[in-house]
Structures are given as structure tokens and as C-alpha cells.
Amino acid sequence: MEQHVPADLHGVEPPRRHTRLGRSASPYLLGAPAIVWLVVFFVVPLVTMLSLSIQTCDSITLACTLTWHFAEFPNLIGQYGDTFVRSLVYAGAATVAALVVAFPVTYWIAFRAKRKNFFLLMLLVPFFVSFVIRTTAWYTLLADNGAILTKLKILHLVPESFHVLATPLAVIGGLAYNYLPFTALPLYVALERIDRRVMEASHDLYATRRVAFTHVVLPLAVPGIFAAFLLTFVPAAGDYVNAAILGGTNTVMIGQVIQKKFLETADYPAASALSTVLLVLMLVGIAAYAKFLGSRTIEEYV
Amino acid sequence: MTDQQRPGIDPALWRGLTQSRTSRRGFLRAAGVGAGALSLSSILAACGTAGVSTSSAAANGVGSAEWWSQQPETKTLNYANWPYYIDTAHGKHPSIEQFQQSTGITVDYTEPINDNTSFFTKIRPDLQAGNYIGYDVIVLTNSDPPLSEMIGFGWAVPLDQSRMTNFYKYASPLVKDPAWDPGNIHTMAWQSGYTCIGYNTKYITEDITSIQSLFDPKYKGKIGMMGISTELGSAGLLAIGVDPAASTPDDWANAADKLTQQKPLVRSYYDQDYIKALKNEDIWISMVWSGDVFQAANYQGYDTLKAVIPEEGSMFWTDNQLIPVGVENPVAAMEFMDYVYEPPVQALIEDYNAYVCPVPAARSIIANQLKDPTVANSPTVFPDAQMVSRSKPYYQFKNSQDLDQWNSTFQPIYTG
Question: I need a labelling partner for A279 at 20 to 30 A (CA). Which of A53, A166, B13, B134 fits?
Fold first, then answer.
């Protein structure tokens, strides 16, 4: 059927919406804020950090010159190798702990809860309080003669000399607690979007609850677990607040060393070199992890 | 109208108005990062920092008698100090209230300084550019490098000696003409203090008289040390019987050995949280700053805490008021810095913070008018001859290599 065209539009050119240039430039224009943001707040600092790590600086005048002084790297890795390993172990343990805590809760909210938004909010509300204040609160709670340990000691559940602060347990616990939202939210998103009909299908095919969980829910939640792992592990490995407040002599994390070198002794090359090593370790670790989980997952969900 | 016809504008000026003039360094940085057209080397080199050019305040006439005579009397003052350092009652500072009433100057007293080096790192770019850092007076300790760096770089305005009448009349010999600022050209003390030993008499029944108690295995896991390079290193030197001010790099290595051996006994290396750990009874004995323990024991109910100056002596430091370059209210700054040396004013401040008082005349006012004999009779507030003889000055760094060596000797102990 012929389309009816109003008579008065005959012979009039259709309005030109865009010039060719404007159309081809639009993705860049739309991306411009993000590109500018990344350049200013990521590329420039990153290049500055890489550059500083091979410079030599005077610690009083802070005059720095590029000397390609790579010798700092093996020295620092030798000196702080243990600290790097400790940071990665603590961050890994904290991430696993956070996953173990977050998974059942988010599973329940995603599959069983009636008022999902309410419970999700309840999960997040404590984290509206400042990071440092929450960590200091743990310091007070876990003190040797604090509210918790005193009672356990009165009941003789733990020996008199028992303490939590200044041990790895306190630091890992602090990390797991503080980064819990970064674990819980990606998990929740992944669990929430699992198609319920797939679950029903598995039951129709005589899958037990356990089999349905291990063969259907868990594989579908992998992207969420992966995202949760990244968002928790990476900041936790570089964290210095938890170890500084809750830790002790033998729980020093690499973030504390970098902070001391930047702010206490203004040793910018060493601080930058340590940051660079941490960055490389993270990238290598994530690449290996991604390979293990398959690159398709990464492309889809990260 | 074409560009050629544009009347009356010099092409060079036009270029200047429409383009920002970039330095070579800035150009390299922009071009290198933006276009990626330059070699890696030049990109990386563009990220260097310029360091300090020797633009001292004195060279520009800042702080000279002539400069001071030209400064207007402004009615505001921005003062940056350390926390818990001035008399406070009901959220107000009576000494400041008095000053505001008598002079009409509005004082914005803030407490942004938690340690010397990181505060200095933050204000450094503005000082280097000659900008106003937002404060007319700041307070820095002589134990850490920033104070001597500020003076050395010419970033501390030479004081108007004619406006220091109270200071010269009442200041204690401990803070007059000090080694770190001969002739008080750039600084006037705020308070001094000891880095000494604090302990909880509830758990430690013996009298602590020696710094060796910090190394005593029977207090294993209940010992706190400071994770601050100058403080920890000085404590190590005192423990091996070396006077820190006269120490050599060999002594530093020996002190570091002693501190490394002590490490299994130490609960944690603290910045300032040692006082919290002492109050919580997580640690029983610690390196402390004298006033912190005094305040906790006498004003906050932790009456089993005690601070002592051991027989080996304790590090004696002074926090110094100084005027940074770029200052906007220098006259008001001088007035306030000198005002705190009036004995009745100092008595108010001292009675609150209980560090080492720079005004001996405040003692009788604290005893008789404020009726606080605990502060007036404390040997760590008004040191007697024995205390003065036990006051040890810090090592003065000769140059950056010297400083680097000190830091690389002691920093690994608490960052390892």
C-alpha cells in the first residue's frame, strides 16, 4: 500500500539532522568526559609514578632527575619481599572470608527475601559511617581488656594472655569487614539475574537441591564471584588503614611502607617503585586469574 | 573581516591572549601524554620535579625591618596547631577569646597538624610557589627535618624582633636562642616536651628508672615503640648509651641492631595511637610524649598511668611557632605569638596541655590562681635542674645524604 505523504511536504528536502562530521565524532564527544577523566586522573599519575620510580631525588630539596636507576627495584623487592607476600596473603584470606560471609546473605536476599531493597539497604547502612571510624571501633571492641575479650576471659573460654589486636587475624578480619560491600554487591547482581526458569528446569530434571546449586547456581554466579574477588582483593592488598590501626609489629602491609616512604621520609622513588611492583603483581595475578576463569567471562562482566 | 585586517592588535599580544604560554617542561608533558608522539625518555623526564630554587624570603626583603614597617594591621589570623594543645572549655578556647576581645582580631584556630613531615609535604607546593598556604602561623617540631628545611629554604619569615617583648621578658632559657634557630630569628616556641617512658603502674609495680625497661623480656608483647624514624632512632641511641646529638653512622647501625633485637618484644610501632593502647591496657609500657600521659592520668581518669624521664635521659623537643612565606596577616601573627608569652595567658594554656612550659613565671599563677598544684609541681612541666640535665637534644642532619642514611638505618625496623 502506498504511503500517504502530506501534499505540502512534496519537493521539500528532509531536515538534515547531523552533518557527516558530527555523526562520526559523536562517539568521541560522548566519550570525552571519560577520556579526559582517565587521562587526568589515571594516565598522568601512572606515568608520573613510573617515571619517579626510576628517578633519583634529593630528600631535602626534592629535586628529582631521571637517572634510569633500576637498581632500586631488586633492592626493594629483596627488602620488602616478605611484606609483599604478607599483603597478598592477607588480602586473599580477607577476600575469601568476605565471600564466605557475603554469599549466603546475598543468595538469601536474591532468592528468598520478600523486600529485597530493604535488606540490601540494611547490608549497606553500616558502611555509611566513615571507614576509619569503623576500624577504630573494632580496635575498641577487640582491645585486650575490651568488651568482648574480657567476657571470654571471665568465662575461661580463652587464656588470660589471649589477644586479637596486633595479630594477622585482626588485620584480615578488618579487611574482610571493611570491603564486604564490594564483595556483596557484585555477588547480589549476579545471583539476582539468574533465570528462575533454569532452576525450575533443573528440578524438573530431578536435580536435588544440592545438585541444582552446584551445577546451576554456582556456575552462573561465577562472573559475580570474579567481580567480587577483583573489587575486594585489589584494594585490600594496597590497604594500609586496617594494618595500621588493628595490626602490630609483624603484620605490616605494603601499603603502610608506601605511605611511610611517601609521607614520612619523602622517599618518592622508593615509594613509586614499591607502588609499581604492587601494580605489576596485581596485573599479573589478575591476568592469570582471568585465564583460569576464561576470557569470555571477563569481557562480559568486567 | 579577516585576520589580516584585524586592527590595532599586535600579533604577539594576540597570541599571548589566546594561548597559554607553556614552559618546555609543561609542553613536553602535555605533548608526551596527549599525543604519544615523543620518546618514552622525554615523557618520563617531563615528570620530574624541579626541586627548590634558592629564593629565600630574606633575599626578597621579606621579614626585613622595612618590610615589617609596611605591613598593615589586619583583623584576622589563621593559626595552625597540633590537636589538644590549647586550653579548651565548653568548646571554646578562653585564651583566644581574651585575645580577640582585647585586640579585635578574629582568630581562626585550627588543628590540622598531626605530624611534621606529612603536613610539610602538603603545604610544600604552595610555599615553593610563594603562595599563601592558608595559615599565618604554623607550629613545627625541631626533632624532624621540616623545621630546619623551612628555615634553610627561606620559607620562614624572619620575625619582627620589636614585637617580641613578652617573649624576651618571660621566655625560659630552654627555648631562648635555641640551637635550631640561633637568636630566635624565625621562631618562638609554643611548648616543649619529652619523648620519655610511660607505663601503667597497675601492671608494672617496679619503679621504672632506666630506658632498658623498654627492652625487658618480661614485658614481651606489652611494649609500645614509636614508628617515627627520628624518635625510634634516638631511643635506640640512648639505649646503647650514645648521645644522639653527637652520634655517628656507626652508632646508628649499633642502635638499629639493638632495636631489631627488641622487635619480638614489641606489640606495635605507633605514630600517636600509643596513648590509646596505653589507656586500653593493650600495652603496659611505651615510648610516649610527656604531656599525653599527663593529660590522660590527671584529666581523663587513667590515674595508673605515669610518665618518667629515665636516668639515661630523654629526648627534649620543642614545637615552634613560625610565620610561613606568603603570609597575609603577619602583624596579627606576631601579636598572637608574643601574646601567649604573657604569664597569665600561658598559665591557662599550660594548665590544659601540661607539656614543658616555655614561661617559668606561669608556675605561680597555676599554683595560686588556678589552684592546680599537680601541674605546677610536675617536674615534666616545670623541669628542675636534674630534669634539665637529662634533656637530650636531637641529632641535626647535615645534608640529605646524612638524612637518607638515618632513615634507611631506622625505617626498615618498623616497616619490615
Answer: A166
